[in-house]
Amino acid sequence: MTAAVRFVFVLHDHQPVGNFDSVIEQAYHDSYLPLLDLLERHPGIRIGLHTSGPLAEWLDRHHPDYIERVARLVGERQIEIVGGAFQEPVLAMLPARDRIGQIKSFTHWLERRFRTTVSGMWVAERVWDPGMAADLAAAGIQWTILDDSHFKAAGLCDDQLDRIWLTEGDGATLTVFPVSERLRYVIPFAAPEATIDHLRFLASRRHGAVAIFGDDGEKFGVWPDTHRTCFEEGWLERFFGLLEANADWIEMSLPSEVVRDTPPAGTIWLPECSYREMTEWVLPPEKQLACVRARLAAANDPALAEIASFIRGGSWRNFRMRYPEANEMYSRMLAVSDRLERIRQAGPIDPGGLDEATQSLYRGQCNCAYWHGAFGGIYLPHLRNAIYRELITADSAADRAEGRAGSWIEATTGDFDFDGRTDVRLSNESLDVWLAPGRGGMLYELDLRDQRHNLLATLDRRPEAYHEQVLAGPGLARSVVDASQLAKFKQEGLERMVRYDSSRRKSLVDHFWDLDVSPAAIADCTALERGDFAAGAFEASIRRNPGRIQALLSRSGNCWGIPFTLSKAVTLAAGSRTLEIAYKLEGLPADFRQHLAVEFNFAGLPAGAGGRFFYDESRRNLGDLGSRLELRDARVLGLVDDWLDIDARLSFGPASNGGPTDLWTFPIQSVSQSEGGFELVHQSVVVMPHWIVTPDADGTWKTMMRLDLGRFSRPLAETVTSFSVTGFGSA
C-alpha cells in the first residue's frame, strides 16, 4: 500500500563565482557541514541535494572529505544528487548551445565525483522559459523542479499541485515537480509541527499525495539567525525526528523514485516565469510596489482571491533593462560565446585553448551578478569583477585557440549591447576598449587583459523599492510586504546617503557645469547639467594607420543653448597600454566661457584599503581611493591597486590659451539591500578633470590627455618628464 504522503525534500546549495573564500568557509561550517552531520545521524531522512558547480569545485578543493561523505550517502540511497548547469547560470539568458554544454559538463563531473547517475536538475532561480524543455531533454535531463507559482500561472489549482506533471517542447517531454510556496515559508521559519500539519492536510485530501520542498540550503544556517534556530536551538533535529516518528504515513522519497513510480497527472505548458518574488524584483520600483500591493489586496479580498495567482510581475530578462550594467555583462558574455562558436565551426588551432575558453565562459555566466533582489547580487563589486575576469580570460584563451600571438591591433563595430545603435571596440594584446557613440560617446568597458580586470565594471545609483524603507530611517522602516518586519541597518546614517545618478558612471562622460559649481554639489548629484553631451548621440568614425587605430566621436550640441561641436578622439596602438585622448570644441562664439568636466570612473579598486591610493606627479601618496580631492593645475593623477597590480595614470597636456587642468575626485557609494540588511557599498571612484573653456581666435578649444594602464611593479621613482598625445586625424 502506498504511503499517505510522499515527501520530496530538495536542498540547493550555492555560492557564486567570485565569492570570498572566507564567506564560503563560514557557510560550510554554519550550514553544509552541520546539516551533513545531522543527516548521518538520521538515516531515515532522505533528500535530493543540488550543490552548484562553483561550490562543488570549491568543496572538492578545500574539503574533499565532505564530498566523500556525501558520496557515501549517495551510495546508500539516502541522498540523490540533483544536477544542473555547471556554473549556475539562469538558463533563459543563454543560447541553446551553452545551456546544453553547461548541463552535460556538470552531469559528467557529478557522475564521476559522486559515482552515481544524474537524471534530474535544479533550474537556477527557477527561471523558466518554455523553449528550455527541449534543451534540457537534449542534455539528458528527465525531470526538474519549479515553483507552484509556475503551475498556478498556467491555471492549475492548489489541489492539483500535490502530484507531478509533464511539460513538452519541440516533441521532447520533461517531468516537473511543483515546489510548495507554503513549505518554502514555514521551513524553517515556523515550528516543525507546521510542516507535519500541512502534510497531514495533504494526506487527508488525497491519499498518495506528493509534497515537494525545494529551496536554498543556506536557509539552514547561513541566513540571518538561522544557525541559531536550526542547530543551536535544534529546529532541524526536531524536524527530522518528527518525520521519522511519522514514517508510517510520511514516506521520504528521492525525486527519481517518484518519477519512476508515479504516473504524471498530465501534460501542461508552463509560461515564462520564476518564483513570485523574482517576478516582482525585476519591475521598476514604483511598479514593484504596486504589484506587491495588488497581490496582497487580491489575496485578502474574497471577491478577488481566485485571481491572486495571476498577479505577478515581469520577465527575468528585464533585469537587463533595470540595470544597464547587467546588459553590458550579458552582451559581453554573448560576444565571447559567439566567438567561441565561430572557432568551433572553423576548427581551433589550439583545442586546449578552446576548452579553457569554454570553461571560463561558463563561469562568466554564473547568474548572481546579473540581477538583484533580497541578496546583494549586481550591487556586489566582487561578483561583477569575477564575471569580467572570466570573460576576459575566455577571450585571451580564444586568442590562443585561434593561434593569435604577438603584437596586434584591431577595431570592430556593431550593436554590441543590443540598443539599436552602433558601438566601437578597439583592441590590442593588452587592452579592450568599448565605446558607445550613441550614449554620450562614453567609454563603457575598459579591460586590462594581463590583470583580467574591467576598470569600468561600475554601477549607477538608482531608485530601489526598498529605499522607501531606508529613507524612513532605523527604528521606523517597515517591510512593504510584511509590516511586522523591521528593516536592519548595517551602518549608521544610511538614510542620508541615498543618491541617484543622472548620468552613467562611466568614462569620457562630458559635463558642462555652472562656472561656480561646487565639487560637493557634483558629488551629491545636485549640480545641474548645462549641456546636452553627457547622454547625447555622437557620430563615430574609425581611422586606421599601420599599428595604430583612432576612434573619432563628434556631436553638434549646445551648452546653455549656445551651439557648438564637441569632438573627442581615442587612439590605441599595437603593443601599447596607453589610451591617447584628445578633445576639441569648435564653432564657439568669441565670448564663450563655460565649465567643461570630463568624468572618468575606476571600478574594482576598493576605497579605504591598504595598497590602494592616489598619487601625484612625483608619486606622492595623496590618500586612499575613497578620498575627495581638489587639485589645482594638475599634470598627473595616478591610481594604484597593488593587490591587482594596477597602476592607472592620467596625464594632462596643455589646454588652449594655457588654461589649467583642475581635478576633483570622489567615491560612488550605493545604498543597497543584502540578506543581512541595508548597507553602503563602494562602487567606483570618480576622477573629473575640468577646465574653464575660452576659445582661440578661430573659435576652437583643445586639450589632450593620456591614460597609461601599467602595472604597479613599475619603479616608484618614475616621474612624467614630457607629454605627447596624438591629435585629431593622425592615428
Describe the structure.
- By secondary structure, the chain is of the alpha+beta class.
- Helix content is 29%, strand content 27%.
- The chain folds into two domains: 5-272, 7-stranded beta/alpha barrel, CATH 3.20.110; 408-461 and 499-731, Beta-galactosidase, Chain A, domain 5 (Distorted Sandwich), CATH 2.70.98.
- It is built from 19 helices and 29 strands.
- The strands form five sheets. A nine-stranded antiparallel β-sheet has the order 17-18-19-20-29-26-25-22-23, with no helix packed on it. Strands 1, 2, 3, 9 and 10 form a five-stranded parallel β-sheet that branches.
- Helix 4 crosses helix 5 (132-138), helix 15 (324-346) runs parallel beside helix 17 (381-402) and helix 16 packs antiparallel against helix 17.
- Mean pLDDT is 94; it is low at 481-485 and 715-723.
Based on CA atoms alone, the radius of gyration comes out at: 28 Å
Number of helices: 19
In total, the number of domains comes to 2
- Silhouette: elongated
- Stretches where pLDDT falls below 50 for ≥5 residues? 481-485, 715-723
Task: Please give the largest β-sheet.
Answer: 9 strands, antiparallel
Which structural class matches the secondary elements?
alpha+beta
The CATH topology label of the largest domain is: Beta-galactosidase, Chain A, domain 5
Q: How much helicity do the residues have?
A: 25-40%
Q: Care to count the β-strands? A: 29
- Distance linking N and C termini: 82 Å
